[in-house]
Amino acid sequence: MNNNNTPNLLKVIVAGALILLVVHTLGRFIYTPLLPLLIADGALTIKQGADIASWNYLGYLIGALLAMRWHRIEQIRSVLPWALGINVLCTFLQTQTDSFELLSMLRLINGISNGIVFVQAPAFILEWLARHGRASASGLVYLGVGVGLIVSSALVSIPADWLSGSERWWPAFILSVPLAIWGWRQLMRLEVASPITVSSAGIPASSKLLDKNSTPLFLSYAGAGMGYILPMTFLPTLASQLPDIPKSLVGYSWLVVALATLPAPWIWNRAGAMLGDTVALRVNYALQLLGVLAVLVIPGTFGVLLCGLLVGSTFLGTVLLSQRLARTLHPHQGPRLSAALVALYSVTQLGGPWLTKQWLNAGGTLQGAFWLGAGALVWGLFWAFLVPRRS
Predict the structure, then answer these.
(1) Of 69, 132, 288, 333, which has the fewest beta carbons less than 10 angstroms from its beta carbon?
(2) pLDDT of residue 137
(3) Record's superkingdom (predicted)?
C-alpha cells in the first residue's frame, strides 16, 4: 500500500478496534468486573451470575453460527450494522431492570449480536487488508479489546460508590453510542471484493472447512475457548473468595488483566511476523497455561496477579494468530472460516460457566473449577504442535 493510503489504513484499524471495544468489552466483558458489585448489591447471587454468563455465551455461539451462514461480503454489509445497533440497545435495556429473568434474556441477545459483530467486523477488515497487501496488520484490530478492558474497568470502578444494581450499566451505554456510530460509518465506505473461489487454472476451490491441515487448528482452538473463559469471567470473584486477599485486589485483578491485554495484539501480531504464526501460537498457549496454573499453585495475591497478567496478555493473541492461520490455510473462504472458529470457541467457552455451576452445586470451590481451564489449555497446546507451519 502506498503512503497516500496510509491514513485510510489507520482509520480502518481504529474503526474496527472501536467496534470490538463496544461489543466485546462494553457489551460483554464489562460483566466480569460488574459481577462482584452486582452480587454485593443483592441484585444477583454467584450461581445466578454463572447462569447469566452461560446465557451470554450461548448467544455468542448462536451469533457465530449465524455469521457462518451470513459470511459473504454483501451479507456482512447488510447484517453488521443491525447487529451492532442491537448490541448497544441491549446495553441500554440492562439499565432498566434488576430482574434475573429479563437480564438473562438481554444477555442472550447481547451474546448473539456480539458473536455476529466479532466475526464479521474483523473478517471484513481482513479481506480489505489482504487485498491491499497488509494482512499482517489484521491483528491490530484487536487492540480495541485491550483498550476496552481498561475503559470498562474505569467505567465500573470510578462510579462504584454512587451507582447500584442496574444503574451500573449506564456508563457503558453512554460511551457505546458515539463509538458504534463512528466505527460503522468508516467501515461502510470500504470497497471489499468477495474472496476468489477458483484457482488460476479455473478449478473450483474446496469448500471443506476441515482437512488434514486445518483440523489440528480447530481442535487446538477448542481448548482455547474453555481455557481462557474461567479467569476472564470469574477471576475477580475468585479473588474476593480467597483467604488473605486484600479487598482492593478484587478490582485490581481485573485492572491487571486489562493492562496486560492492552499491548497484547501488537505483541502477538509482531511475534507472528517474527516467529511465524504457528510457532507464536504454541508459545501463546504455553504462557496462557502457566497463567491459569498460577492461581491454582500459588493461591494468593501473587498467583491472582500472575494469572491476570499471563491470561490477559495471551488470549487475544490466540484469537488473532488462529484467525490469520485459518485464512492462510484456506484463503478463499476467510470470513466463513473465521465464523467457524468463533462458533467452536463459543461451544467450548459455553461449557466453562455451565460446568462451573455444576461443580459449585456439588459443593466444589470456584478455585477448583479453574483446573478445568488448565486441562483445556493442555489440550490446546498439544494440538497446536500439530498445526502445519505456513508463511
Answers:
(1) 69
(2) 79
(3) Bacteria
Dist CA 147 CA 13 (whole Å): 13
- Percent pLDDT > 90 in the chain is 38
Q: How far apart are the first and last CA of the chain?
A: 20
Check whether 5 has a pLDDT greater than 60: no
Is the pLDDT confidence value at 328 over 90?
A: no
Question: Which residue in the block uniquely carries the three cell numbers 474503526?
Answer: 15
> What CA dihedral angle connects 27, 209, 324 and 319, to 10 degrees?
40
Residue 346 to residue 171: CA distance in whole angstroms: 27
The β-bridge partners of 198 are: 204
3-state secondary structure of 71: coil
Q: Of 39, 34, 332, which Cα lies nearest the Cα of 160?
A: 34
- Of the candidate CATH numbers 1.20.1250.20, 3.40.190.80, 3.40.50.300, 3.10.310.40, the domain formed by 3-193+208-384 belongs to 1.20.1250.20
- Which of these, 242, 391, 260, lies nearest to 314 by C-alpha position? 260
Cβ density class 227-246: b for 16+ within 10 Å, e for less: bbbbbbbbbbbbbbebeebe
Q: What band does 334 get if pLDDT is binned at 50, 70 and 90?
A: low
Q: Give 24's DSSP letter.
A: I
Highest mean pLDDT among 74-78, 81-85, 265-269: 81-85
**Cα–Cα distance, 29 to 233 (Å, whole number):** 8
**pLDDT tier at 201, thresholds 50, 70, 90:** very low
171 φ/ψ sector (left φ>0, alpha ψ -120 to 50, else beta): alpha
**CA geometry: angle at 129 spanning 124 and 132, to 5°?**
135
Mean pLDDT across the chain: 86
HSE, side-chain direction, 13 A CA sphere, residue 306:
16
With b for 16 or more beta-carbon neighbours within 10 A and e for fewer, the 84-100 pattern comes to: bebbbbbbbbbbebbee
Confidence of residue 197 (pLDDT cuts 50, 70, 90): low
- Per-residue confidence at 6, pLDDT binned at 50, 70, 90? very low
Cα–Cα distance for residue pair 376/388, rounded to 1 Å: 21
CA–CA–CA angle 333, 337, 338 (5° rounding): 120
